[in-house]
Write a structure and sequence with these properties.
The complex is a heterodimer of chains A (578) and B (166).
Chain A: H1 5-18, E1 19-21, H2 22-32, E2 37-40, H3 47-53, E3 61-64, H4 68-82, E4 86-90, H5 94-97, H6 100-108, E5 113-119, H7 135-139, E6 145-149, H8 155-167, E7 173-179, H9 180-184, E8 186-188, H10 208-220, E9 224-228, H11 231-234, H12 238-248, E10 252-254, E11 269-272, H13 279-283, E12 290-294, H14 300-303, E13 314-319, E14 333-336, H15 339-349, H16 356-378, H17 387-397, E15 403-406, H18 410-418, E16 427-428, H19 439-449, E17 455-460, H20 471-477, E18 482-487, H21 492-501, H22 516-522, E19 526-530, H23 533-545, E20 550-555
Parallel strand pairs in A: 2-3, 2-4, 4-5, 5-7, 6-7, 9-10, 9-12, 10-11, 12-13, 13-14, 15-16, 15-17, 17-18, 18-20, 19-20
Antiparallel strand pairs in A: 1-8
Helix pairs in contact in A: 2-3, 2-8, 4-6, 4-19, 10-15, 12-15, 17-18, 17-23
Chain B: E1 2-11, H1 16-26, E2 33-38, E3 44-53, H2 55-67, E4 71-78, E5 82-85, E6 87-93, H3 101-108, E7 111-115, E8 119-125, H4 128-138, E9 145-148, E10 152-155
Classes of the chains: A alpha/beta (578), B alpha+beta (166).
Chain lengths: 578, 166
């Protein structure tokens, strides 16, 4: 029997109502994933999505950067500070290939990121069409997962899966390539978030046996030592780390990306690891008897020569990613799983202890570093300004939860060494990939997550010029980023290596720089240049007081070096103070 | 260095083979042989990779392969842990045939699977050492073409694919 006409119309209308353009599905899916802010740059193959975006003002915010690399680093900065998935939009071809550095950076630093790229229409794939690149092939080694969508009906499931993969397990970079036909075709929209699928394991239950073995080692240990990395922040295990240290009395050192996971004022905190980390934490790695590594992956910048790294110690590795266990350093006890869970269990299983004489060794070496390096960096008596004293003044004025964003090079190491980390998620830097040009856009992204928070972008004169166009985005968004340019008119870190390892042959490291102040002012950003020590404190204060973005150029000593240092191929115990 | 067989149980998605081989490429490791085909479960593929590396390296390779999102399970075995077979085809010109071929075929348990006016094709299944041995002998017959498959293997361990696919 035919239904009455009215009902038939109603059913038809409902079906029609839920069908929408693929481009609308993209935006609605992003909204369903609670993406509030996306960074991007339009172009031919992504135009339908940009057209749809026009209708969703108020529901989702888009920031137009000046280059796709700026968009992806901004999304990374946003993700690192917010703990949410960073989202980025770009067109096909050059737009998409410009994202690659950011994808690789996010992937190696475990930053949750979803990049959506337009692609030529499905029937043109593989024909060298205008602005076609094989994004699946190009992005594959730089992503945790990538996927090409060729029909509108597959958009929502792909975005759901992409967000789930980006933020779960060990977070990483995802690229979803959407052909133009899929953006304009119609499909029903019924968003189903992704929670699991059979080939992907996100949770590894913590083994009680492993916990007992680890606890037994720790309870017997005379000189236990803990290293913590970004896994603590990603696993939201900051409190568990603190409780563990309170009870165990074990000295603890941070990797570059782990900085902030533990307040530097904690009594067990002994400093930073790695090539330009602190003296004691590196040197004493080869004197501990039990080494506990939490959410860190024994990067070569941390270990130096592996054949001479902590060979005397029994190693306990608390790690989420099974492929990191035994990759660089063999673990005597591997505790697979989220460190939030494993640290809590381990805290219960260990005896309460103090390790005063062992801790005193760290403090004695710290004193040596203070005398040989730190005081000369922070309170120099020579004429030229040091990078360290700029950071010293920033510490004086910054808020406890201020975010430090750095680029790559000498300024990065100095800022990291001297910035006073008190809270978690206050550090944004390119650790694994070492991407120059990262800081300015990443600081913008971090700031746009929260306008009210202090975001300090410390950058060198080399790196800033790699993405300096993003001053335009800062101008347009009025993001009150405090940019501190430490200018030595050199590619400083490369120059330092040339001095130390290449007989001072300064091959292509000196820069003739533009007038940065005029440049910043051209973008409507208040700017100030300091070359004299007498003016530094006031300039830093002015920067923090100013309501809005500020550009502070500090002209520093041309040929200063960063110490301590473990030269490439050396052991951690060969860390040098000069 | 030892010869290992790596089994990869994976979703049948576009690009998965590429993702797997990238792991070998990155580390500069040559794949000795590779076969890929659908398993007995629809949509699930089985890839068998033969590789000569140290035990430490094979463990890291397997861990990194298993980390690939669409890989369901990966594991490795030494030659003693698998039952495996390879297939070789030999194309020989008819003009070079003589009375000796019959004995060679009998001795090696090879068989003729095609006979054309200009050539015959011999087939031999067996381990690489066996197929290589026959190749050396048949060189005297002016081999036109020789092709050998990758390894097809099953593990001796009593585990079924179903325990991973759910």
């Amino acid at each position: 029997m035919q239904p009455p006409l009215k009902v038939a119309l109603l059913i038809n209308f409902k079906v029609m109502e839920t069908k929408m353009r693929g481009a609308d599905i993209v935006i609605r899916s992003l909204i369903a994933e609670q993406a509030e802010l996306i960074f991007g740059y339009p172009g031919g193959a992504i135009m339908p999505v940009y057209d749809a975006l026009y209708d969703y003002e108020g529901q989702i915010k888009h920031v137009l950067t000046r280059h796709e690399q700026g968009a992806v680093h901004a999304a990374q900065g946003y993700a690192r500070i917010s703990g949410k998935v960073g989202v980025c939009l770009a067109t096909s071809g050059p737009g998409a290939t410009n994202l690659i550095t950011g994808l690789a950076d996010a992937q190696i630093d475990s930053t949750p990121l979803v990049c959506i790229t337009g692609q030529v229409a499905a029937h043109l794939l593989g024909t060298d069409a205008f602005q076609e690149t094989d994004m699946m092939g190009i992005s594959m080694p730089a992503t945790k997962w990538n996927y090409q969508v060729r029909r509108a009906a597959d958009i929502a499931p792909a975005i759901a899966k992409g967000f789930f993969i980006a933020r779960s397990g060990r977070p990483g970079a995802v690229l979803i390539d959407i052909t133009k036909n899929a953006q304009v075709e119609l499909a029903a929209f019924n968003y189903q978030p992704c929670q699991e699928f059979r080939s992907y394991k996100t949770h590894h239950p913590v083994s009680d046996t492993a916990i007992l073995q680890a606890a037994a080692l720790l309870n017997e240990a005379a000189r236990p030592y803990l290293l913590f990395g970004q896994g603590v922040i990603l696993g939201k295990a900051e409190a568990e780390l603190k409780f563990f240290l309170d009870k165990s009395g074990i000295p603890a050192a941070s990797t570059l990306l782990g900085s902030g996971a533990l307040s530097q004022e904690h009594p067990n905190y002994v400093g930073k690891l790695g090539m330009h980390g602190n003296y004691a934490p590196n040197l004493l790695t080869n004197q501990c008897d039990v080494l506990v590594a939490v959410g860190m992956r024994f990067d070569d910048r941390v270990t130096g020569d592996l054949s001479r790294y902590a060979k005397q110690a029994k190693v306990i590795h608390l790690e989420l990613d099974p492929s990191e266990i035994n990759k660089n350093v063999k673990a005597n006890v591997a505790v697979l799983g989220n460190c939030k869970e494993s640290l809590a269990k381990l805290t219960e299983a260990i005896a309460s202890k103090k390790h005063e004489s062992w801790m005193a060794k760290f403090r004695a070496l710290e004193q040596q570093e203070n005398e040989a390096v730190v005081q000369h960096d922070l309170m120099p008596t020579k004429v030229g300004l040091t990078m360290g004293e700029a950071i010293h003044h920033i510490n004086h004025y910054k808020a406890d939860d201020a975010v430090l964003v750095t680029d790559v090079g000498q300024h990065q190491m100095i800022a990291w060494r001297y910035f006073n980390y008190k809270k978690t998620r206050t550090q944004v830097t390119s650790g694994g990939l070492g991407t120059m040009g990262f800081a300015l856009p990443a600081a913008l992204g971090a700031q746009l997550h929260d306008y009210s928070r202090q975001v300090i972008c410390v950058v060198g004169d080399g790196g800033i010029q790699m993405t300096i166009q993003e001053l335009g985005t800062i101008m347009q968004t009025k993001a009150p980023v405090k940019i501190v340019l430490l200018n030595n008119n050199y590619l400083g870190m490369v120059r330092q290596w040339q001095q130390m390892f290449f007989d001072k042959r300064y091959s292509f490291t000196e820069l003739d720089n533009p007038d940065f102040i005029k440049l910043a002012e051209a973008y409507g950003i208040k700017a100030k240049k300091v070359s004299d020590r007498a003016d530094l404190a006031e300039a830093v204060e002015d920067m923090f007081i100013h309501d809005g973005p500020f550009f502070l150029e500090v002209v520093v000593e041309k040929e200063d070096n960063v110490f301590p240092m473990i030269a490439t191929g050396c052991s951690v115990e060969e860390v040098r103070l000069n | 260095m030892k010869r290992y067989t790596i089994f990869v149980i994976t979703e049948n998605f576009i690009g998965i083979l590429n993702r797997i081989t990238i792991i070998f490429t990155r580390r500069g490791i040559n794949i000795d042989a590779l076969t890929a085909s659908e398993s007995r479960i629809p949509g699930v593929h089985r890839i068998t990779i033969e590789v000569t590396v140290t035990e430490e390296t094979v463990i890291q390779l397997v861990n990194q392969i298993e980390k690939i999102i669409d890989v369901i399970k990966a594991f490795h075995h030494e030659d003693t842990g698998v039952v495996y077979q390879e297939l070789a085809l030999y194309k020989i010109p008819v003009s070079r045939l003589d009375g000796g071929l019959e004995k060679i075929i009998r001795d090696h348990h090879a068989k003729i699977i095609a006979a054309e006016p200009d050539f015959v094709v011999l087939e031999l299944t067996g381990h690489k050492e066996k197929t290589r041995e026959l190749l050396e002998i048949l060189k005297g017959y002016g081999i036109l073409e020789f092709a050998r498959s990758g390894r097809v293997a099953v593990a001796k361990r009593m585990l079924t694919i179903d325990s991973f696919v759910n």
